[in-house]
Amino acid sequence: MVLTGGGDCPGLNAVIRAIVKRASQESGWEVLGCIKAFDGILNEPTELVLLDEAKVAGIHYQGGSIIQTTNKGGPFAWPVKKHNGEWEYIDRSDEMIRKIQYLGIDAVINIGGDGSQRISQKLFEKGLNIIGVPKTIDNDLSATDSTFGFQTAIQEATSAVDKLVTTAASHNRVFILEVMGRDAGWIALNSAVAGGAEVCLIPEIPYDISIVKSKIDARFHRDRGFAIVVVSEGAKPKHGTVVGQKADEIGYENVRLGGVGFKLAEELKQAGCEHDIRVTVLGHLQRGGVPIAYDRVLATQFGVKAMELVLNGEFGCMVSYRHPYITSVTLQDAIQKPNLVTLDTALIKTARGVGINFGDDTIAYEE
């Protein structure tokens, strides 16, 4: 049984296709798709669909997931409405495992990010034969060099920067582009370098608004000039907090980030920035649509490897890319720590080397 959990991501369908095509080469194996992550097995009636070669033909270039996904609820926190109208969350994991065993399902492949793989580990500890496939546009899993969907997200963000440059230059404006990433600044960092931004603000480097303003001001002469600021949704000022709010959607546990671009514009104005400022929030455009070739290839490699782990009985593992190899790590190791931008990473040094400012007082390239 294969399922996709968490947010959608370019390349999900390529993974599903690869799993099915690899399984089709082995006698006695068939692949079931579980609709909307684990909901398909928890719902009554059960929502499972047979995935054969005809079903997955040509889906590798499609965005989204043909078996749908969700980032709400799950087997350990299933939302149930009480008689008084309030919601409570119950653990249905044991019930779900019994149902999987009753249906004769030999293994589960869970395609998802950090939260999904934490669920995978807990289910493995309860005895479920499960394999993880890393999926996140944020590239925030440290147990793999890269995740599929990440490069597509960078491409979309860079394309947005390219478009904003022309209108910023035409109107002598400051454009702030807010991108995704949650606690990791990889999308912002890569698109800022690729797009030639002047300022890049990421969660890992709290910014000083006066330094950001100075960098922007230096781009203008007699009110002529322009500047591009790429800001990650999880960025925050020194001694400040991230911009977000608790979601009111039932079963969604994460803080919903967003709005830092508008907050930054207001902070710049309060700091005395007199230039015209516009804000663009790229949002879900980063995670939708057709995956680029790189992500299709990586996703296909992940799908084949996941099925081979099942065939070899190597459960409790997550597929991993360690250049140049497609390998695996234990789920326990996979969820130990996130992959965050560090100050000594090569791309930070490159960005500083071309003059990109991070809102801190380190402005020169350092070895």
User: Helical stretch count?
Assistant: 12
User: Strand count, sense and closure of the main sheet?
Assistant: 5 strands, mixed
Radius of gyration, whole Å:
22 Å
CATH topology of the largest domain: Rossmann fold
- Round the mean pLDDT to the nearest integer and report it: 94
Neighbour order of strands in the largest sheet: 1-6-7-16-17
Enumerate the spans where pLDDT stays under 50 for 5 or more consecutive residues. none
Give the overall shape: elongated
Q: Share of helix among residues?
A: 25-40%
CATH structural class of the largest domain = Alpha Beta
N- to C-terminal separation?
A: 49 Å
SSE-based structural type = alpha/beta
Tell me the fraction of residues in β-strands, as a range: 15-25%
CATH architecture of the largest domain: 3-Layer(aba) Sandwich
The SSE order reads EHEHEHEEHEHEHEHEHEEEEEHEHEEHH
Number of domains: 2
What is the number of E strands? 17
Summarize the structure in words:
The chain has 367 residues and is α/β, with parallel strands linked by helices. It folds into 2 domains: 192 residues, Rossmann fold (3-Layer(aba) Sandwich), CATH 3.40.50; 148 residues, Rossmann fold (3-Layer(aba) Sandwich), CATH 3.40.50.460. It contains 12 helices and 17 strands. It has a 5-stranded mixed β-sheet, sandwiched between helices. It has a 4-stranded parallel β-sheet with strand order 9-12-8-15, with helices on both faces. Helix 1 runs parallel beside helix 10 and helix 6 packs across helix 7. The N and C termini lie far apart (49 Å). The mean pLDDT is 94.
